[in-house]
TrEMBL record:
Gene3D superfamilies: Nucleoside Triphosphate Pyrophosphohydrolase. GO terms for molecular function: coenzyme A diphosphatase activity; metal ion binding. The keyword Protein biosynthesis does not apply. This is ADP-ribose pyrophosphatase. It comes from Deinococcus peraridilitoris (strain DSM 19664 / LMG 22246 / CIP 109416 / KR-200). Keywords: Hydrolase, Magnesium, Manganese, Metal-binding.
Length: 185
């Protein structure tokens, strides 16, 4: 951590009210939204293996379901280690982003973190490929917006970010949209 200059992401998180969800019937999960420590940070994303039972080939943040007795932060850090070999000692957790949910019943707690640039990741059986788009590249994209109406009548705006032949969508795009729109670098 840089002791001289405050992290702009920490200031951004401190200036906004975090949106938490109460979804007791949903399964708990957590993801690590990792940005490299650079002027124009890279965003750590994974392409999920085509061998997985769910979300095959989708782009996601490292993360997954909470194990018994595990906190959301512990789960996000454990999953980042298991999926891409990101050691928790190399992760500076900045704070929590807004909760998210998936249509298949996951309540997801995302953690914003800073990591070293040029990290020597390793893929696991869950990950087909590691992607690191620069934040400026994602900001230059025009996201595709789609409105969905839930059975309750509640409306949700969904996003898709087409990037270098990949389609970033769903919960990952929702979380990414907050980062892209933040104006922070």
């Amino acid at each position: 951590m840089n002791d001289v200059l405050p992290d702009p992401w920490r200031a951004w998180l401190g200036s906004r009210e975090r949106q938490s969800l109460s979804l007791p019937k949903y399964r708990q999960a957590a993801v690590l939204v990792a940005l490299t420590r650079e002027t124009d940070p890279r965003v750590l994303l994974t392409v999920r293996s085509s061998e997985l039972p769910t979300h095959r080939g989708q782009i996601s943040f490292p993360g997954g379901r909470l194990e018994t007795g595990e906190s959301p932060l512990d789960a996000a850090l454990r999953e980042a280690w298991e999926e891409v070999g990101l050691h928790s000692a190399d992760v500076e957790v900045v704070g929590q982003l807004d909760d998210a949910f998936t249509p298949i019943g996951f309540h997801v707690t995302p953690f914003l973190a800073r990591i070293p640039s040029g990290y020597a990741y390793r893929s696991s059986g869950e990950v087909a490929r590691i992607l690191e788009p620069r934040l400026s590249e994602l900001r230059a994209l025009i996201p595709i917006e789609e409105e969905r109406v839930l059975p309750s009548g509640e409306r949700h705006l969904l996003y898709r970010y087409p990037w270098q032949g990949h389609d970033i969508w769903g919960m990952t795009a929702r979380i990414l949209h907050d980062i892209v729109q933040s104006g922070v670098s």
